[in-house]
Amino acid sequence: MPSIAKIHEKILDHLVKLRKVDPNLLFMPRKINNDGRMDKGYWFLGNEDYVYVSLWSGVDWKERVNCIGFVVLPDRSCYIELSGQGAEETVPFLEKVAKLEPGLDRPGTKYKWFKMFPGKDNDQYLEHFDYYIKKFKPKVDKLIDSEKPPLIHKVTLEEFQKYGMKVIALRNKQIVFAKTNKITRLSWNTNNWQYPSGWLGKSDDLNTHEGKYGFGYEEWLFDRSRLINGYHYGFIRGFQSKTEKHAGKVYNVHLYSQNDLRQYFYIGCIRNCEGITKADSTATFKIYKDNDWLDEMATSLERVEADVAEFNRNKPDLFFNVRFKLSDIIQDKEPEELSYEDDNVTTDRFKLLGYRGEVVPAMNPVEPDEEDEGKFKNTDKRKRTFNMDQEYDPYHDRMQNAIVAHLRTDEKYDYKHVYIEKSRVDIKAVKHDGTWDYFEIKTDSPKRSIRNAIGQVMEYAYYPGVERAKNIIVVGDRRPDDDSIVYLDYLRSRFEIPITYRYFDWDNLILSSDF
């Protein structure tokens, strides 16, 4: 999955490591941040198709590369390149360099020479890069000292301090950022990680926990209904460690998941996610057991035909490994598919990785031309990859019960009666003047909740042509994003639909004001 930026990163880290032994090793990185490439970690010349690393100054303006460089391609193949196309005065010197290095040939009529290195497995290019530094560079340096060629010279200390130290500082900043900002994979789930979703979309690899047992312990990660002293306790595989090395440490943890079609989806972020000890896990496990929450979790696994026996074999000291506040869950949008070139995700394993600062979404499809009327739909059976509807939603039921209790006991609402699950409506509340409020509870993102609820609750309120409810209230468990708020305002003003959105605050067991 990683793109060519990962090659830039590994080469720069390698150079920094070598400089600790040899401080006189100087190099010429990218000088300017054109097209924002340094922001992406493109520390050297090149684009999405190649990395060009030079240990000397001297530019071939026509080819837009240095006259002498080491090139790595996305497939990890690599070679030495000499280029004098736009700097013909360097050609006599480059010819002499080519004669010094076996295999450095000029294949055509252009003033360009290449030496290809064999192999492209993993990081083999770093071995050839070492040759470029330790064997090739001394020969070139010696020739520069004796020939003093035009345009080409060894990198000066002043140049290195201006350009080289700049990229090293940027890379160090990135490394420091990654110490407290992480990204990790979760087991696949189509119920927003509030309760298990079953085998659909999960890996079929029997070497994985989800592939063997049909569930992952992360599937309750966003069940906001079980709080202990203001914290939600959960399990994230990337925090699992024999030495408890993450216990007591606090990270901003970004989350993604992968389905059985090998599509990657960014889920959201948990700020201030704290690793906990095994003793904390044991104590929390006891609370879950005393409250019958473990039985509820087992029941939710039974309903999706996952391996409940494996769940019941869980160890109290390993059942939980993180805790966080609900207010620190950042999940404003629906899961977003990631590009295969996202450098945040460098492995399919459930590891806690350093986060680079932003994810790279998959490219959106290009809008069709107006004359393109499209193609008939493919009617072959195919797997759904996300969001499957299920009648059973224990998280929805817990939320429904809590909201009804809140509406019945909070005097500010002044409802005469509050009904639960009457005429298929999640909650119906009647005021003393005889008007009704209809509440429809959804547990998706605010945008999707509004989309899924609006047609359903309008049918309950108005079909076939009678007004039963004065106010329609969609209830979710997250504060709506700005676009959703604008959308609701537009629905009310354009179509005069009396619809609002509220979110349920699990911390305080209250509903928000209307949006």
Q: How would you explain this protein's 3D organization?
A:
- This protein is of the alpha+beta class.
- The chain folds into three domains: 5-176, no CATH class; 181-354, no CATH class; 394-511, Trna Endonuclease, Chain: A, domain 1 (3-Layer(aba) Sandwich), CATH 3.40.1350.
- It contains eleven helices and 24 strands.
- Helix 10 (446-462) links the parallel strand 21 (436-441) and strand 22.
DSSP helical segment count: 11
What does the largest sheet look like?
9 strands, mixed
DSSP, total strands: 24
> Radius of gyration, Cα only, in angstroms?
30 Å
Task: Report how far the terminal alpha carbons are from each other.
Answer: 40 Å
Write down the overall mean pLDDT. 90
Choose one word for the global shape: elongated
How many domain regions?
A: 3
Low-confidence stretches: 373-379, 381-390
Give a short synopsis of this structure.
The chain is of the alpha+beta class and 515 residues long.
Give a topology summary.
Layout: H1 5-21, E1 45-47, E2 50-53, E3 56-57, E4 59-60, E5 65-66, E6 68-72, E7 78-83, H2 91-100, E8 112-116, H3 124-147, E9 153-154, H4 157-180, E10 181-186, H5 209-213, E11 227-228, E12 231-234, E13 250-258, E14 264-275, H6 278-290, H7 293-303, H8 308-312, E15 322-324, E16 329-330, E17 336-337, E18 353-354, H9 394-409, E19 415-422, E20 425-431, E21 436-441, H10 446-462, E22 471-476, H11 482-495, E23 499-505, E24 510-511
Parallel strand pairs: 10-13, 21-22, 22-23
Antiparallel strand pairs: 1-2, 2-6, 3-9, 4-5, 6-7, 7-8, 10-18, 11-12, 12-15, 13-14, 14-15, 14-16, 14-17, 19-20, 20-21, 23-24
Helix pairs in contact: 2-3
